[in-house]
Amino acid sequence: MLLNSFRHDDFRYFKTLIVRDFEI
């Protein structure tokens, strides 16, 4: 799966970007 390709840190960073978008 694509998730396996992502590093754990990269996943958290991507998730953080999504959270920031929702906050805005």
Principal-axes shape call: elongated
Uncertain spans, ≥5 residues at pLDDT below 50?
Answer: none
Q: What value does the average pLDDT take?
A: 75
Distance between the termini: 30 Å
Taken in chain order, the helices and strands follow as: HH
Rg, Å, rounded: 10 Å
Q: Could you estimate the helical fraction of the residues in percent?
A: over 70%
Largest sheet: none
The computed structural class is mainly alpha
Q: What count of helical segments does DSSP give? A: 2
Into which percentage range does the β-strand content fall?
under 5%
Provide a brief overview of the structure.
This protein is mostly helical and 24 residues long. It contains two helices and no strands. The protein is elongated and about 30 Å long.
Descriptors:
24 residues, mainly alpha, elongated, 83% helix
Q: How would you characterize this protein structure?
A:
Helices cover about 85% and strands about 0% of the residues. By secondary structure, the protein is mainly alpha-helical. The longest helix is centred in the middle third of the chain and has 16 residues, at about 10-24. The chain is elongated. The mean pLDDT is about 75.
